[in-house]
Write a structure and sequence with these properties.
It is a single chain. The longest helix is centred in the middle third of the chain and has 36 residues. It is elongated and about 95 Å long. It folds into three domains: 192 residues, no CATH class; 114 residues, no CATH class; 194 residues, no CATH class. Helix 2 packs parallel to helix 6 and helix 15 runs parallel beside helix 17. The chain contains 24 helices and 13 strands. It is an alpha/beta fold. Strands 1, 2, 3, 4, 5, 6 and 7 form a seven-stranded mixed β-sheet that branches.
Length: 576
Amino acid sequence: MTATFKNLRDYLYQNDKQFVVPNYQRGYKWAVKEEVKSCTAVEYLLDCLILAYNENKTDYFLQGITVSEKEKQIILIDGQQRTTTLYLLLWSLDKENINDIATRHPKIDLYYDIRQQSRDYINNLHIPTFDYTSSSDDFQDIYYFKEAIKQINKKIEKISDKDDFTEFLLNKVQIIYINIDESKAVQTFTMMNGNKATMLPEELIKAEMLRKVSLPDKEKKEVSTSVDENLSELKEIIAKDWETNAIRSKYAREWDKWLYWWNRTDVQNFFGVSNPMGLLLEYCFKQQQSDKKVKFSFDSFKSLLSGKKQTKEQFKKLRDLQKSFEDIFNTPKVFNYLGLALKRNIDKYEAINYFIENKKNEDTLKNYAKWSLVEATHLEITDYVKSETLKEDKARIVLSHLSEKIVYNVYNEDAFKQLLRLNVEEDNKLNRKFDFEIYKNRSLEHIFPKSRVYHKSEVENDDGSTTIVFKDGNEGELGAAVPTTTDWLNRDSLTDCTEHSIGNLLLLDKNDNSKFNNSDFDKKKYYYFDATSELYSRNLLHTISVFANSNWGKTEIEKNQKEFIVRFTEDYKLKN
């Protein structure tokens, strides 16, 4: 190991050497704003550098950077975040520092070992016509590269002499440059980052697994005096080195594919996660624990990686589990039924594991989703003989709620879940994935407007007497006379239902609901099917079937109420 001081000019421009971000490194994260801090690491670094520049410091020292030099490559072991940020800073200050070899500096060559999209984005910065804002945000690195550039540009816009600031950075900013042997690179990375608060368990586990599969096989061989035998042994050693490097690269590529998948917005929203590797590592760990109370962490998962063989076994488990997650996400009916099950306060781990185990049994998953929506527990759903009465009782409670004349604003959640189920089942008929974003913006819409339904009400006078008046569905007073126009509906004429019953309610996106206001059915229907307007709720097939009616009044409300109750009773197989 050697350690020397280098200014940024000497560090970044080392005779056309290539900076390599190795496969065990985490993604670029310095543009992330942590909740406990008021600024990102990019902003903090820029603030410190600008302050040092303004104070005319003769030298400013950054934290040391640990590398492993290999021919024309500088492998970044500790310092990739700083190096990448400095690269983006120089690019933002003066693109000549990076993409014009003919000027005062050769280009900085930053190479992401396996993250192809990250590598392409960084390389494209060398192109003068490249629009850095136009690339896709689907990949974590690219999103944060762009965020970092935005943060840098905001900080440097107030610097009057950017050339002078650039010279300060290149000549006065110093680092401790630590060069270690390549064979100790992964182990050093794990040791150096193991105690850093900014390192996530997922990132440490990746580094540890790559380190373990890189360990040499523990075989003791007797020294031979034969040249042929020694040559054969040398060939075997070289072959094993090639095999080890191939496995490590393969693991790293697969890991990053999983990382990109779990960082997709639709995946994170569906599973309700925000951490980089989603549920993969935690669920793989839990599946191997008899005590489900043992918490997932880097140290707890590390205990499963006792050697090279065990690490390979764990990686296979992760690969199989990842495929299962992708299968249940990509299979429409499995996706839809799991989406329903996750819309209640059920044990997510138990539910997802159950769906993984039964992903080919559609009826089993349909049954699980159905009972989940009446608040049956995982044990009640999966232990049929002992819990049938408990499940049925819960379904009867929901049925009693939704059979009431007033459901709106009293039993909204029961109505939401069951109307959601009806819409999902319509998508299942088409083998189409349901968009569960509707549940975040859910709203109940009165099909026949509540403002056009009247009922009698007693109003107490100041002298203690009462007066009969008429009110609408919003409890607004209409006076003492019965509304005479034909577009009014008498609540008292309805049988076993009102304008607030399930018979007159449907599921909408709340943004669409506000557009309907208190329009009559014909206007709502026209607006709903008007192709010139954007309406998310037009994707709700059960809602479409309601608006497909030619009329909506007393008869239709009563019919819809009855059909809903009959279907619920049949779906849940409630007797009597």
